[in-house]
Amino acid sequence: MIATDSGAEGTRFDAAGITGVIATVSVFAVAQGLSYPLLSFILQRQGVSPAMIGLSAAMTPIGFIVSSPPIPWLANRFGAGRVALTCSVLSAIVLALIGWTQDVYLWFPLRFLVGVVTNPLYVLSEIWVIALAPPARRGRVMGIYSTIISAGFAAGPLCLLAVGTEGWPPFLVGIGAFLFCGALLAVVVRRLPRINEAGDNVSVLGFMPLAWLLLSAVVVAAGFEQAVLALLPVYGIHHGIPEAGMSALLSVMIAGNIAMQVPLGLLAEKLTVRLVRFICLLMTILGCLLLPILIETPLIYPCLFVWGAVSYGIYTMSIIELGERFSGSALVAGNAAFSLMWGVGGIVVPPITGSVMDVMGAPGLPVALGGICALLAVATVFRRRVT
User: Where are the alpha helices (DSSP H) in the chain?
Assistant: First the structure.
């Protein structure tokens, strides 16, 4: 089971504990957000092909997928706090090895290890936030959590503007961030919920039939985000929008993601989390329909702002529902399953979308993404009718 130090999950609002965990994971997000563009820039300077750069980047989500199933066992066997602290140190070590080697082929196993050692830290932090958030405030707490995570990832590339992308300085920033993450965690770890051995342990694979719709929503949210970040610039160039203009549009979309998760969480508290997730899904589909109509007009800016908010809102609502429906070992397994399916979505959906664009041209982007979201909407309605 998961137990707070008061002996009852969610009976009091531990602001210090929640703040500590969110601060910890925000520093982790900055380090992760810095590493992705940094390594791509370095490989590009070395003359590595775009295909090889993409394969190299894919190693980290593969590491997420591989490392997700053992997380519940590791947390029960060694303690969640000890596992998270160890992972923060190992993350710094692996990033140091990447900076030391500077070799595209050695980076393949090392970037895989980045995914393996950072994933438990992310999963366990999310479990702690869910367990500490009182049910009546879970929507706003998880909204704040999603907002800060997104802001952390967005801040990572900004660090490169200050320290550059050459030599050790950017790597030292990332290494320092991972170590600082561990230091923050060490300060608050005694306040955090314990994950104890229980007789009803649920594995990651055993959890999947219990919440297949939630996991499908995670795949859609992850795949949508990764496909848009990778392929929206291609779509914009087709419509004559310059690179600077597309960068601005992506920034507006990310801003919507960051700004609107707390309002969506509050809305989930007023309505129901399932209803708000379905609204987010329908509005995401609407955005796919409006994209070709508005892409060459000024209205594309508010459209993408809302699109970014509601598309990521699908994930935020899913993680809130996970906390509402599950506890104990099922919650641990569920969070690990979420991480696994996020990796699956990030690997599977962008190539599918790109293939549709190969056949249809640029219009294939909204068609593919809208179709994937429509399938989830149909599954949502079907599940409601049969339950």
Answer: 15-45, 50-67, 71-78, 80-101, 104-132, 138-163, 169-188, 204-207, 212-238, 243-270, 273-294, 300-325, 328-360, 364-386
For the segment 78-94, what is each residue's pLDDT rounded down to a tens digit? 888 899 899 999 999 99
Q: What's the token pair of residue 20?
A: 């500590």
What residues contact residue 153 under an 8 Å CB cut-off, 6+ apart?
Answer: 29, 30, 32, 33
Q: Report the C-alpha gap between 131 and 18 in whole angstroms.
A: 9
Contacts with 227 (C-beta within 8 Å, 6 or more apart), sequence order = 349, 350, 353, 354, 365, 368, 369
CA distance 4 to 132: 8
User: Is the alpha carbon torsion for 128, 147, 280, 362 positive or negative?
Assistant: negative
Residue 302: per-residue pLDDT: 94
Mean pLDDT, to the nearest integer, of 361-365? 88
**DSSP symbol at 169:** H
pTM for the whole thing? 0.82
352 and 315 Cβ atoms separated by less than 8 Å: no
Residues 6+ apart with CB under 8 A from 189: 81, 84, 85
When mean pLDDT is compared across 40-54, 276-290, 351-365, the lowest value belongs to 40-54
What is the secondary structure of 331-374 as a DSSP string? HHHHHHHHHHHHHHHHHHHHHHHHHHHHHH-TTHHHHHHHHHHH
Give the residue from 152, 196, 208 showing the smallest Cα distance to 177: 152
32 touches 92 (CB < 8 A): no
Kindly report the backbone phi and psi dihedral angles of residue 195, in degrees, each rounded to the nearest multiple of 5, phi listed first. -110, 105
Instruction: Count the neighbouring beta carbons within 10 Å of the beta carbon of residue 367.
Output: 17
Q: List CB contacts of 378: < 8 A, sequence separation 6 or more.
A: none
User: What is 184-251 written as a DSSP string?
Assistant: HHHHHGGGSPEE---TT---HHHHGGGSHHHHHHHHHHHHHHHHHHHHHHHHHHHTT--HHHHHHHHH
